[in-house]
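Quick review question:
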């Protein structure tokens, strides 16, 4: 199994890196072709579509027969048999940043077995940074091992988060943010959930939470955070309802309690 995870990690890195190169070289022309998805503020560009097509083609060559779940084209193939590998792909996580020329967008490619991520890569087209992990094998940024922060005091905790595209969900989220801001060091919002999770793994922020994400947003990044020693909760796995949560171990309990107490949407 270790050998398989290493192989899947290498495939994820290779495919995500190729897609990241395509995303970057096509950025200027691609961003002119913008459509919207769940709401008027939820964009999809030709870059998203081209990158997902490339990922699907490369995975079909390197891992023939593995089903692929992608943000733009949904589930391909007939679904995975028990114990088989499924690929979960976000061709551009942080599409709004991509659209505006802000550098925080990423290609996220994860391999899951029975719904659990076993290997993944997050590649940043603008900087070329490569984040990756295999379950039980640790996480790295450009081959340097990652470690979550040693934060231990809630009031000194730097927390990343993100907001839904739907305005009614945002209205609920503002109450949680207002409460949090009075009890922690500060909030960061990069605009890429995959990168937020990687940043927890690197200790660049102490924690991250968000509600309403899709599997392609968190599949690779959550493993990278977990393998770097962060405490990770995925949707449907605990008291945080449908939230994704990743935290330095020293502040995970008080932060989780604060989020529940603040009425994080989807928790009660
Ligand atoms: C979005 C980003 C953002 C998060 C949103 C996601 P997309 O993904 O990850 O940070 O706050 O909830 O939908 O649309 O750029 O792939």
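Suggested answer, residue by residue:
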């Amino acid at each position: 199994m270790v050998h398989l995870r290493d192989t899947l990690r290498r495939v994820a890195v290779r495919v995500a890196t190729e897609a990241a190169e395509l995303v970057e070289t096509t950025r200027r022309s691609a961003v002119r072709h913008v459509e919207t998805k769940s709401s008027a503020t939820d964009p999809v560009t030709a870059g998203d579509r081209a990158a997902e097509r490339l990922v699907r083609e490369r995975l079909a060559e390197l891992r023939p027969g593995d089903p692929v779940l992608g943000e733009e084209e949904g589930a391909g193939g007939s679904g995975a048999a028990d114990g088989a590998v499924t690929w979960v792909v976000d061709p551009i996580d942080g599409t709004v940043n991509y659209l505006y020329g802000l550098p925080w967008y990423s290609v996220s490619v994860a391999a899951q077995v029975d719904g659990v991520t076993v290997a993944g890569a997050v590649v940043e087209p603008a900087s070329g940074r490569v984040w990756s992990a295999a379950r039980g094998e640790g996480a790295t940024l450009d081959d340097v091992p990652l470690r979550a922060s040693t934060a231990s005091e809630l009031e000194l905790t730097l927390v990343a988060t993100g907001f839904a595209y739907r305005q009614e969900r945002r209205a609920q989220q503002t109450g949680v943010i207002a409460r949090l801001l009075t009890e922690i060091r500060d909030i960061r919002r990069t605009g890429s959930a995959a990168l937020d999770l990687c940043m927890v793994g690197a200790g660049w922020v102490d924690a991250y939470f968000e509600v309403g994400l899709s599997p392609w947003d968190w599949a690779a990044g959550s493993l990278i955070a977990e393998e770097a020693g962060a405490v990770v909760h995925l949707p449907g796995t605990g008291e945080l309802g449908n939230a994704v949560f990743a935290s330095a171990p020293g502040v995970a309990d008080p932060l989780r309690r604060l989020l529940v107490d603040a009425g994080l949407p989807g928790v009660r």
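Why it works: The mean pLDDT is 91. The pocket of D-MYO-inositol-1-phosphate is lined by residues 71, 90, 93-95, 162-164, 191-193, 210, 213, 217 (CB under 6 Å).
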